[in-house]
């Protein structure tokens, strides 16, 4: 796990200061070492967090055996030793997973991407072809940003701040992305908050040749439905997850696992314990209240005899944590779990470099309550347009019931999922705040339908997961110099889950059906009965903190605050309700405050 940077331009050897500034800006992504390599037309930089092959043979940028190719990689190639055996004629110098990609490139060229597993963002400079080949993993676990500099330079990096540190670009705010953020709570998964800095889409490659960049997909989310029976699916589910977790336990440094006591993390620990005794587990604990997961986590830790560590909430001031997090976040993200996620990685970094996470189980196994509710709405039926108008009109004068109102407001399951679930500001509210740009839509790799409820999960895998969940995990873990691995996103396991009939995952009353059937014996009885429990605290509670109130007043009740270059001051005052809209605006205002120097 690392940070990468590069500049492709004529006379690239003259860009040593720029590359140095870029890698310095993301030094926390790789505190173990920093290196740079230069060709006439390519400058490459790398910050290393040593996980596999801790020797100097693993240093990047890494040259191929012919010195014709040079790679910078951020990520991990799971099962790399088996791939290495397939390319055994390559003269390997070390045992790193990075070198395997160079071996594959020499044999297969850009087609290597179809056979490459794992989480990754990389760039290969081919000196002979004078060509840059870049790629990002299928789900977007690892980031890749790029831009065109003031003199036509092609600039890329793991984070936006590295591109800005080059000094070669003046960023321009994209107000349409402010609107997208207000509606969804995050920036569009295929965009950035800047018009002139670009986000390479997950499952896409970029080839730069003769100053022209070609971006195209190499994988699309599966839309077929498996014909396996439920019993057959359970067996394959367990088999593939076993393989995935076993591969992700491979490292030359200690590997631990988060353990919240929920279904997903408990499953990962149960399987991991088959291959690694006394694995270190970590829970972020609240001393009291509904968010106290410590007893559930302890029960699993006892069952599997893990080396269990409780990271007790130290009641660090919310305002203090928030400002620490936004010292490194390049874009606004209103997800309140960002703060405890940062704190648990901060604590975990004292003992571990690699941690397994149970993220994305909800999107693969149907774990959210709104999936069940959406199925229930659909089975009851949404109203035709003429009837919807009548119900909504009647609702102005009397109570028509919340469920009936929802079935009238939205035309179908996709409409409800896209425009109600996790939406924080309506289009009308965004217009009142002063943003008139059209809110960008989503270009999915498939055509969502209302008949297959798997499509609700596919939408989340292409929208919410990369733009919110994976971004949150990458930034908080890497700022604390920790690598987070997500076994559920192993490509073989994930593809299998995506293609399972939705009835094996969720219905109007049950969630995570296949996970419960496959692993209920691996949990305690209390955990098996648990429902979904979010990670984080109530922002309403947070706003009781005097210091946070003071920060809010400074940023949202001061007309000179930078946010009011884009939003209407009087309309913002109406939203300071100490709830989600207030929190969203505070995050945006804090982000503007911390980044205004780039924008002036």
TrEMBL record:
Catalytic activity: L-aspartate + L-glutamine + ATP + H2O = L-asparagine + L-glutamate + AMP + diphosphate + H(+)
Site positions for Important for beta-aspartyl-AMP intermediate formation: 359
GO molecular function, one term: ATP binding
Location of the Glutamine amidotransferase type-2 domain: 2-211
Residues annotated for ATP binding in this entry: 357-358
Keyword field contains Metal-binding: no
Keywords tagged on the record: Amino-acid biosynthesis, Asparagine biosynthesis, ATP-binding, Glutamine amidotransferase, Ligase, Nucleotide-binding
Gene Ontology BP terms: asparagine biosynthetic process
GO cellular component: cytosol
Source superkingdom: Bacteria
InterPro entries associated with the record: Asn_synth_AEB, Asn_synthase, ASN_synthetase/amidase, AsnB_N, GATase_2_dom, Ntn_hydrolases_N, Rossmann-like_a/b/a_fold
Pathway: Amino-acid biosynthesis; L-asparagine biosynthesis; L-asparagine from L-aspartate (L-Gln route): step 1/1
Active site: 2 (for gatase activity)
Coiled coil: none
NCBIfam families referenced in this protein's UniProt entry, alphabetically: asn_synth_AEB
Protein name: asparagine synthase (glutamine-hydrolyzing)
Lineage, broadest ranks: Bacteria, Pseudomonadati, Bacteroidota, Flavobacteriia, Flavobacteriales
């Amino acid at each position: 796990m690392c940070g990468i940077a590069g500049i492709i331009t004529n006379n690239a050897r003259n860009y040593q200061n720029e590359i140095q500034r870029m890698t310095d800006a993301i030094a926390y992504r790789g505190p173990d070492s920093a290196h740079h390599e230069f060709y006439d037309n390519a400058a490459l930089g790398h910050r290393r967090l040593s996980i596999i092959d801790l020797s100097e043979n693993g240093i990047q940028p890494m040259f191929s055996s012919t010195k014709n190719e040079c790679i910078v990689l951020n990520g991990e190639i799971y099962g790399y030793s088996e791939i290495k055996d397939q390319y055994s004629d390559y003269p390997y110098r070390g045992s790193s997973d990075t070198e395997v990609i160079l071996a594959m490139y020499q044999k297969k060229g850009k087609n290597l991407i179809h056979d490459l597993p794992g989480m990754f963002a990389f760039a290969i400079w081919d000196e002979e072809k004078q060509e840059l080949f870049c790629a990002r993993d299928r789900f977007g676990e690892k980031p890749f940003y790029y831009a065109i500099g003031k003199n036509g330079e092609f600039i890329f990096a793991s984070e936006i701040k590295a591109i800005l540190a080059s000094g070669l670009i003046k960023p321009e705010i994209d107000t349409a992305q402010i609107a997208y953020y207000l509606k969804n709570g995050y920036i569009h998964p295929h965009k950035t908050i800047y018009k002139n800095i670009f986000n390479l889409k997950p499952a896409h490659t970029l080839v730069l040749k003769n100053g022209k960049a070609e971006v195209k997909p190499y994988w699309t989310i599966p839309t077929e439905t498996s014909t396996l029976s439920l019993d057959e699916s359970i067996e394959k589910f367990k088999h593939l997850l076993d393989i995935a977790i076993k591969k992700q336990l491979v490292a030359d440094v200690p590997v631990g696992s988060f353990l919240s006591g929920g279904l997903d993390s408990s499953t990962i620990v149960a399987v991991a314990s088959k291959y690694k005794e006394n694995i270190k587990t970590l829970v972020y604990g609240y001393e009291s209240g509904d968010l106290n997961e410590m007893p559930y986590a302890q029960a699993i830790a006892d069952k599997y005899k893990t080396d269990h560590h409780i990271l007790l909430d130290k009641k660090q001031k919310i305002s203090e944590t928030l400002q620490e997090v936004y010292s490194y976040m390049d874009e606004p993200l209103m997800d309140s779990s960002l703060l405890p996620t940062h704190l648990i990685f901060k604590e975990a970094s004292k003992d571990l470099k690699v941690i397994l996470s149970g993220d994305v189980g909800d999107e693969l196994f149907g774990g959210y309550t709104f999936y069940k509710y959406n199925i229930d709405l659909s089975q009851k039926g949404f109203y035709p347009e003429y009837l919807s108008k009548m119900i909504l009109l009647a609702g102005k004068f009397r109570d028509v019931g919340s469920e009936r109102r929802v079935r009238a407001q939205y035309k179908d399951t996709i409409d409800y999922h896209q425009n109600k679930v996790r939406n924080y500001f309506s289009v009308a509210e965004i217009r009142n705040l002063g943003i008139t740009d059209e809110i960008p839509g989503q270009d999915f790799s498939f055509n969502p339908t209302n008949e297959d409820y798997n499509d609700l999960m596919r939408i989340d895998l292409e929208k919410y997961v990369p733009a919110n969940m994976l971004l949150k995990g990458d930034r908080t873990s890497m700022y604390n110099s920790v690598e987070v691995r997500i076994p559920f996103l192993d490509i073989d396991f994930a593809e299998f889950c995506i293609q399972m009939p939705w009835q094996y995952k969720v219905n109007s009353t049950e969630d995570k059906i296949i996970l419960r059937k496959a692993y209920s014996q691996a949990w305690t009885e209390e955990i098996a009965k648990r429902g979904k429990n979010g990670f984080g605290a109530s922002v309403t509670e947070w706003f009781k903190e005097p210091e946070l109130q003071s920060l809010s007043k400074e940023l949202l009740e001061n007309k000179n605050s930078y946010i009011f270059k884009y939003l209407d001051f009087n309309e913002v005052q109406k939203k300071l309700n100490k709830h989600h809209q207030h929190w969203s605006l505070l995050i945006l205002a804090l982000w503007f405050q911390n980044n205004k120097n780039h924008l002036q």
